Each structure stands twice: as C-alpha cells, then as structure tokens.
Amino acid sequence: MAGEDLVSDQQATAMDSEPEAASKGTKAPKEDQGKKKRKGPITLADIEKDAIMKVAREHWLKPLEEGEASPKFSADVVQKMYKKELGGGQEPPLQRVVVLEISQYLENYLWPHFDAETSSFEHVMSILAMVNEKFREGVPPWAGFHAKEELFSGLMSKIIALKKEHAFTLHEKVVYLHFIIHCFQSLEDAMVRSQVLPLVSLPLWRNISAGRLQLELKHNPSLEKHWRYLLKKEAKAKKSAGDAFVPQESKPEVWFLPLLCDEFVDTLEKAVVVDEVTGVETVEPKASLYCERFLEFVSDLLSQLPTRRFVRTLLEDRALAVKCNLSPLFQNPKEGRLFAQLTDLFRFYQGFQINDHTGSHLSDEEMSLLHAERIQQLQRLCFKHVPQLMELALSTVGSLEKRQTLEKYLAALDPQELFTLATRQLRLLSAEDPWAQREDCLREVVISTFEKRPSQRQAINELPLYPTETVLFDENMVPSINYTGQTVLALPKLNLQFLTPHDYLLRNFNLFRLEATYEIREDLRNVLKRLKCVMIEEEEEEHDHIGFKGWARMALPTTGFNVTEVGKPKVGELKPAQVLADITIDTRTLPGEARFEWDQLKQHDVVFLLAMVPPSTLQVDEDELELYSEEQKQGLKYVRGGEVMEVRDEAGKLMNDFTGRVKQEDWAPPAGNVRTITVALDTAQYQMDATATVEGGQEDVYKTFNVLMRRKPKENNFKAILECIRDLMNEECAIPEWLHDIFLGYGDPAAAHFTNMPEKDQLSTVTFKDTFLDKAHLEEAFADHTIEYVGASKDDPKPPFKVTFPAKAAPKEEEDGKKRKKKGQAEEAEATEEEVKVLKVESVTPPDPGPYSQDQARLNTVRFTDTQVAAIRAGVNPGLTMVVGPPGTGKTDVAVQIMHELYHNRPNERTLLITHSNHALNDLFSKIMERDIPARYLLRLGMGEQELDTDIDFSRAGRVNAMLARRIELLAEVEKLARTLGVVDDVGYTCETASHFYLLHVFSRWEEFVHAVGHKRKKDGDEVAAGAVKELFPFSEYFANAPQPIFKGANVVDDTRAARGCFRHMRIMFQELEECRGFELMRNQGDRSNLLLTRQAKIVAMTCTHAAMKRSEFLKVGFKYDNLIMEESAQILEIETFIPMLLQKTEDGRSRLKRVCLIGDHHQLPPVVKNMAFQKYSHMDQSLFTRFVRLGTPTIQLNRQGRARSSLATLYNWRYRDLKDLPRVQTIPAFKAANAGFAHEFQFVDVPDWDGVGESEPSPYFFQNLGEAEYVVTVFQYMRLMGYPAKKISIITTYRGQKHLIRDVIKARCENNPLFGRPAKIATVDKFQGQQNDYILLSLVRTRTVGHFRDVRRLVVAMSRARLGLYVFGRRALFENCYELTPTFRTLLARPDKLALVPTEQHPTKRQVVDKVKPYLADGLDTMNVVVNQLVQKWAQSQGKTAGEVQAQVAQAGGRGGRGGRGGGRNG
Fold it and tell me: SS3 for 85?
C-alpha cells in the first residue's frame, strides 16, 4: 500500500471522529486503543440542522442585502454559547467545538467584536477555545487576527491578567494552558512573539531564591551587568513616578510563569485522591491532564534557547522535577504512566548538555568537568561546615558518581541538618517552600543535583534500534491512527528551533524510530490476524505444542533458532561486539509466488523474530490484562529484530550473495525448501535481555521464538537510516559555518543569503553560458538595472554573456567617527542603490567546438523569466538559496540550469543532486543529459536508475564499463592520429603512452603551427596569409573524415578559429584518456567504482533515502562535493534533508560545502508521515524547507506558470504572491482551444446521494462514494467517445478507498472495451503530486464532513494537476461553506453545478474557449448515462454493427453495470 494513500485516509480522523471519551472526561489513550466504540462523524445535515448554525446564521453568517447593516454584537450570545456549547467550564463534546469552529465563530464574531476593556471572561475563553481547535484541525490559527493586529496586545494582556483576576475550573485551566503552549509554538509570527517572549525574560529571576540568584549572577558576569541595569532603571522609574509607580513584581514578566508553576504544584498534589477508608488511590482525569499539559509546556520552553535561558533556573530553583518524581501521580503505574514519561522528557531537557547563555553544546568531557567541579564544591562545604559528611568530603570524585553512594552518606544527617544543607548552605531550595519540610524532597534535591548525569551520547549508543514489544504497544509513544489531538504524548517535537545539532538529531532519531515502529506494528497486526496461534493437543499431554491455524505471506513458523556467536565487547563497552543467530524455516507449505519472495531475502534485509503463545495459555489477572494490547492478548509475548547476514539453502549453499563469494558461473537454483538464515541481532538489546535473565530472573527471550516475519524491502530501510543518524550523533557534526545558526533557528535568517556571504566568496562575475537566448532576453531579465555593454562586441552583443555585478558599497563613516545621521544614511542608500543597479556585460565569443557534429554544444532553449534568472544567479553563488516553485513555474528547468552554469563556471567543483522520489530524480537527470555536460561526468545512484529513459547506463557499474569502453575507442583514435603523423611507435597501447605521444608529437606540432601562422601573418599580413592555415595545418589528414571544407581560405581569422576547434577536439580526446588512466591502472571493479564516485563524476544524483542508507560507505571511500541541490525539498523529512549535507568528511574540522540550493513548494503537500500523532503533535511532517520559510529565510518565488490555462490557474494562484502566466499561455493554440464536448474548461459537478447513499466506509477510514465513482467513469467514457486519447486523461481522488472503487468500475465497464480502455492514471491526490495531465477528473468523495481536503495544501495539489481541463465531482453544499477553501470554490461555483455538455463536437474542436455556446446541462448521473449510451449507439451504427451488437456494446458500457465495483473486494 502506498504510504501517501494510507496517510490520505488516516488524516481524516482528526475531523471525522468524536471519541466517547471526550464527552466523559476520560483519557485519550483508551480511546486511541480502540476499546471504545467509535461514533460516526458529524454529517452535513447535522451541521445544517444544528442549533449552533441557527445562531450563526442569525448573528455572523447572515447573508446581507446591499446596504443592509450587519447584526449588532451581543455579549449575551457569547455567554450563552460558552455555557451551552463550550461547556461553561466543563469539557464540551468535541463535535460541538468542531461545529462552532466550522461556523467561523472566531473570524466573524469573537475577534471582530473583541474589546480589551469590555469583553467578558467568556468572550476571552471562547477565543482561546477556538484558537486551540484551529491548531487541532491543522488550519492557520492566527490568520484572522492579523486583520486587527493592533488589538492583539490588548487580547494578550487581558488573557494574562485573567490568571490573577478570575477563578478557573480545571477544564478552563487546561484550555488556557493549551493556548499558551500554542503561542510559544508560534514564535515565527511577530505578532505573537512580541507578546509572549517577555514572559520568559530576565525579570523572571526576581522569583528565585536570593542564594540561587547570587550563584547565577556570579557564574554569568554579563547578566550581572544587565541585572544591575534593571534595578537602576526601576529605582529611577520609582523616583520619577512617585505614587503612580508600578513595581516590577506587578508586571506579568515577573509573576506569570511562577504563578503557573505554583498552580501546577497545587494541582499535582490534588491529582490523586486517597480513600480514607479503603486506601484506594483514584486519579482525577482532568487534574492529570492539566499536569501533563504543564509538563508539555515547560518541556517546550526548555527545548528552545530563547525561552530556555531564564526559565530553566526558575524551574530548578523550585525543584519541579523533584516534586514530579515524588508525586503520587508519578508513582501510579497505570494512570500515571504518561505523566512519568513526560517527567522523564522534562528532566532530560532540564539537564540538556548546553550552556544556556552562550548556546554552545557541552561535550561529555565538559559535562564530566562540570560534575567534578560541583562535587568538589560540595566536598569543600562539607569539610568546612558539615562534620557528619567528612567521609564524603574525603572521598574521590569518581566514587561519588552513583546515587546509591550519595544516599548512603546523606543518611547520616537528621532532618534538620538535611534542611540546613539543602536550603541554607547549598541553596538548592527555598526555605519558604512547603516541600522543604519533606525529608524525601530535600534528599532527592541534593542527590539529583550531585549525581552524575548519564551521557546522552552513551544512552543513544546503548539504545536498541529495533522496536520491542514494550515500545510497539505503548500508546503514549506510538499512538493509534485515530489520534484526535486532545491529549498529550510523551514525544519530542520538531518546531522552529533546536538547542544544538545533537538535540536536532536526537529528536529526529526518536521520531523516525517511532514512526518506523508504528509501521512495523501495523505489519505485525496483519500477520497476527492471519496466523492464529493455537495449542495443538496430542494424545499425551506432554507432547502438546504450539501451532498455527492460519498462514501469512509475510511470516513463517520457525523450525529452529540458535544463537551461534556472541562476540567479546569492544574496549570501553559492555555490549557484545556481535551477536549472530541461525534461523531455520521451511517454505514448502507456501504458494509458489510467496516461496519465491522468501527466497529473495538477502544481506542487510531486516526481519523480526516473534515469540507467540496461544491466548488460552495466558496466565494473568484482570488488572494486568487491562494493560495488555490487543496483540498481546492474541498471544504475542516478545518481538526482536535482526539483520540478515546470509541465506543458505537445504544443501548449505549461499543464496543471493552480493559479496563475490559465489561466482556467477557457479550459481544454481536453491535446493530444497528448508532455508537457514543467519541474522545479526541487536547487540544492545541482547545485553539488556541477558542482564534481565541473569540478574532479574526473567525468562530467556531467545529460547521462545517461533515465528519469523519479513517486510517489504521498500518499507524496510529504517535501520540503515537510524544507524546513519546515530553515527552523526557520535561525530562532531560539522554543519557549514555559514548555515549553522540558521539551521538551528537563530540569528539573522538572511545571513546565509549569497549577498550576505563574505565578498571574497561571492561570484561578482558570472559567465551565463546559455541562460540568455539573446540581448533582449538579457535586458528583460535585468529590467530594473542599467546595463553597460563592454568588450569588442559591445555594439552587437550576442550570448554567451559575462555579467559583472558590482560589489556592495561599504558604509561610510563621518569624519568625527560617529554614526551617520538618518538623512545622510538615506542619501547614501539611494546613491548606493544607483551604483548597484549598473551591470557590466561582455559578450563572450565561445571557442570553435570542433569540426564534428558531436562537438557542438547542446544549448538551452528556455526563455527564463527575471525571477528564474534571479534564482539561477543565487544558485551559482555560495550560500543558501531557497526557491519556491508553484505548480508549472519551471522548478526543474531552474535546477538544471543552476547545475549547468555551475559546471561551466566552477569546473573543478562537484555537485550533489538530491530529490525525494525516483520519478523526480530521473526527470531532472534526463534534462541534464540533454545539456552541454559530458556523460562521463554524470552519475546516478540507486535502484531508480533502471527507470531512466535512455540507452546509456548511468549507474556506477555502467559508468565504469563506459569509461573502459571509451578508453578502447580513444586509444584506437590515437593510433589513427599517429599513423597520419607518420609515428610508427605503439602509442595507443595505454593511456600513459598516449599521454607521451600527445606531448611529444601532437602538442609540439600544434605549437609549431601556431608560431608559423603567426609569423606568416606578421610578415605578409592577413590577406596574404589567408591560405596559410590550410597549408600549414599538420593534422589535415586526421580530419579528412570531418565535414569539408574545414578551412575556406577566405579569412585567416576564421580559419585559425577552425584550426583551434580541431585542436580542441584532440585536446579533449587526450583529456578523456587521462581521466581513463585511473580506471586502466585499477584491476578491481570495486576500486574503479570508488574512483568514479570520488574523482570522476562532477554531478552525482541520488534520492534522499539512498543518501541516508549509504552515508557510511560514502565516508569510507572519501566522497567529496561542494554544492548541494535539492529538488522536492518541501516533500522531504527534516532529517532526510539534513543528512545529504553531511555525506563527506570534514577538512580541518570544517565542511567544504559551499552552496545549498533548496527547491520546493511549501504550499503543496508535506512529507509523508503515516502516524497522525507524529504529524499533529510532533510536527514530524514539517520539512526543513518549510521550517526555513517559517523562520523568514529569504526565498525566490517563481512567479510565472506555463502549465495550465490562465483560467485554470486562478483556482490556485491566490495561494501565491503575484503568480501570473507566461506569455506563451496566451498564444499556444491548445490553451486557446475549447475542450470538445464541454462548455467549460473547468467545472464543479454537484453529485447528490445515489440510491440514497453518499459516502460510505466499508472499513475504518476507507472512504468511498459509489455515485461519484460511477459519474467520473461515465464522464471518462464520454470523453473517449468525444475522441480524447486515454493517455491524456487522469482520474484522481482524495481517498484511497475511492481510488480502488474507481479502478473496479473502470475494470468492469471500460478496461476490456477497446472503445474506452483505461485512463493514464487512477491515483490519490497525494500520490499524484509532482505529476500532471491534460485533463483531470477529480472525485472529492466526502458528503458528511470536508475531511482532510480542508488542508489547503491538498487543495493546491488537486487543482494544479490539469493543463487543459479540470472537472471536479463532489457535494456542493459541503464544500462551498468551507472557510479555508472559499477562494477556489467561489471561482468553481460561479459556473453551473450541472455538467455543461456539447455532445455534437469531436476532439479536437475548432471552437475557442472565448466562444459562446448553448450547452446541454446533464441533470445527474442517470442523464449522463443516457448521453453515453446514445453516443455508443451512434458510434456502433457508424461502424455498421447489427442491432444485437449495438445492444451488447451499450450493455458493456452500461451505466449501472459497474455497480459490482462497490467494494471490489478491497474493503480492507
């Protein structure tokens, strides 16, 4: 199943389902586990009849007549809506909130009528609830506020003040806190940032204890200066303001966060209620949710440097982590599990290895030194003031690293002594804090401060890469697909900023690992459902054994498992160096195709070992059973992963060997059905399991395995990528210096733009080889510049052009050394601007390429627009280039031109080309092949190379073979040249002999020729010397087979140029031979392949996945590159964008990467993430490209589209800034011609219920709509009868279920009928991204709720796939009222919603789009069927068919004949 398709269906869950738990206040993990019955989604009819919509139509959705005033605002309405629909302080049903948000309550009523002075508490809380819902739905939350941005500060002041002025219920506290979390996650919005960042600034430290403040200021002298300035400023303000003075303690930046902390501690203490009689603990769900939200909040603050700096000290001073650890909620193993996991995440970020004030990462060595310094300070204090701890004071630092040791020493202190030590001497906790009276709290505060924190790097290295049953079924970490966004998860987030590169890698590592875990879990569920483990009973009870009633294609029972090798640990490690095991399976029971698939297992494939028992044998009590997942209840006990090392057949012979141990001539089909698979087990997991068995007395996991599971190869590369990320964490991650701060999200977002790079690195002069087609094109591209032509050809300049861009004028200083005044600055800026706009352009005469046709350069034919030229110029310059490419704007052409210009301007540099998909990579690569870059410099890595539409093999093996074959061809040419020169030596034996021949015989003759011609011209003049070139040229015989005449004898300059062209041909020939020399010397194919990769190839292309999987190999062979160009970068995961920047070793600790060019479109669909929780909660689907855009990194948006008709482009160009059409859109005949058989080139067709049914859901999230499927297929038949080629028509839909249904209907009604056939493609919108066709039929499927089509990015993709015609089928009443889709549907619905036909035409028609025509409106599907049947009859009669044949033809096309495709057997 395609990942995009799966995601398409799952994304509907956020808006389509209302968990029962939501209305009862119960917690979401249970709802996620599927234990509650899922309620149906709200329907369009429900929404229309809803009381909310009645109120909305009366107050904020009422259509106004011209001149009619809008209804007056009523505060009573807001109060009633808050109490009735938003719960009035209690949790409302989710559906009520959804309907309220859909009604545009926030945009049209709450915000337009907000007043900071008069708005009520209910008004403010309603705004908070609506913003939270917008975040949950994934729609832009702040867009509506920008219309009245000046009021936002008043709103935030009101929100903050409410915390002191109003009493909140627990639910209101959760809503409030959730809103604050969202604010701090939106720091890219200046409106929000300006209001919330002051809340986490230096004044916070007024709330920390005096002792802690003194220590912090002592360690940070620069902050001490700022602190004194604040105190001085406050004293001055107090003196001048008198009685009106507002003390700092009354300002929100001082009291707000501490108040939240106090509220949290108070709630935490009350979260668990103990029955006084029975002693049973009960967890209050709302209090628990609030505590979880708070931990999410503080973890977010600590994970971003701007919010961490002063917050961490406050949280440490209040010992929040210790209080969490000691709370009853933390100790509760069931309801408190999520809270405990969030506490661990909070503690992790609180102790993160970073200097809070400089932002520098602290290495393990630096952390060890800091730990030793803390211990020594404690020892000095104890030696001097605490005689009871004298033994501690005299111990070695190393002996005090463990918690148990510290606990032993602290036990010597009585409670009062411990209180004095912690509060007065060490100043770790305020003496006024109520928790300071608890001995366990004081002890934990001291121990947590002085125990050695585990190394983060070491912890990652000890973490198993394969998921086990513990992680697989933990809903807090790997939630089910129906995550609604209402609960907290124990997951890291990918937001705008990261603390360090290590933090970035760690978050991505954890999320990538969990995403892979989710996919593995889905495969496991499929296998378990099919295998059905049972106990096979024998006559004698002791012979009973475990068996399986069913079978699975992807899993087999094992007949043997044995650990064969446990390697000794490496120095400094505890885990074994290697653990190997042999697994035996028997494939005889499998069908032939499945057996073949198992025989294809090869080295590095990942498999999973399962230990299963019959469910009937589970011996657990009811309480424990409640904690089990459904899979564990089916008998799954253990899951362990392993990597295949080798596979042997029944005779012990190696199968699928790629190491060279089995020679090709020795290959034979595998013997028998028994296979022995040697796997490498995870060494870290093996060590953990062995320790648990030996020390904990647990069962030996490795004696229980009885099932082996495999996965599809394309979905099974997670281990290689995780290893790559882990390797990066173990290295000093060398991000290019110029990109480092921007990458982490700090500093000036424009710092890496080429104009801000060091002037010495910028290309002030660029030779645009073929970017410009002529002089006019150049002037169009630089229309806002003054162009000064220079050089010999300045009067008649022709391409190629060498353009010199003036350097920025350095800022001038006044004579007195002071800064310039504003007026002077403005005047100078204007003068500088004038200077910058002058370009010097020189026409460069290219050398004669040579006498043969193959010598001629292949030039660009695209007339690039001014923005495309700006993108090309930025791309060839050093630094970061971000190109936003809306649909049809020529992103690929720009990328190809950047590479082409880089190759010719920087011939010694190497470029790495990365895309997300093989399809896009091959498209790019095909265009590069057509340009003036020799094939020997191009290399395409990865399996997709086989799909390249060319006879040339661009793989590593193919390029090596091509180089060796080319060597033989060139040496033959050398022999031929030697014969024409009368050289009898064997000069063409090797590349080396050819090189000597070139120097001794070819180059020497050429120098003599040049000298002779020059002497002749100097002596006799050009006119007399006109025939001298032909007469003196020493290589005429060699070029006898070239097109003649080479030398015309009319002009000595032209003939000399032709002679230089001939010599250039020979020089390139010998240059190629020199490049072949390394391949000649090396005898090993692997060495030749490495030479090709590291030295020969100038442009290396691969997908981001291949880059991640092969990084270690690239480092090993010494791969190097200078430039990185990444297409589809908005579709690539953050980490998969980052890894290609680090595929080479550093040079003196620095990266040699000079340019990074990211090309993509963040307005289209993001990377594919299958688990919805990772999308919504952790933002894993945010690409690096999108994050850079959010940060404000300068972008170049291509602003001229040439894909679609101008009218079609209006459906999506509103989403882009200034997106217009290329001139050719108005002139190409195909764009001017009408669509035969249709009155309009685009139309929305309203599809009502068919047979009383709209959308259906045969299985969860598998949405179908039979009426739409039949309608779309009928229109496809109509188009084929009109004469449209099937390859020009594609059918796309927004859901996977509908895709399968349409395929079934096509199969039933069209596929076997030559009159119709199949369309070019039937796909989901997500899967069709990056593709296009002339005519698109789009099915929107949903009739109850809009679903995931509400994501504008999906809308943009759907609307931009068609070039000439787009016909959208859906439910008008549903989609026309969706706020986010309004601009597109306003345009669509300006036309009739019944399909307007012109059935008398044939494709192609002479009618133009602008011509008026009286259409026939098809009144629904039945009418459309009649039209098609009549056309079929007409066609059959024209072919001379009999009445019976005509009837059969009509029956085959049949309207309702496709009804059998309703499920098509694909309802799962």
Answer: coil
